[in-house]
Amino acid sequence: MPCCGQQRTQLSGSNAWGSRAPERHFFRYEGQTALTVAGPVSGKYYRFPASGATVEADPRDAPSLEQVPQLRRV
Question: Is the pLDDT reported for residue 2 higher than 70?
Answer without folding.
Answer: no
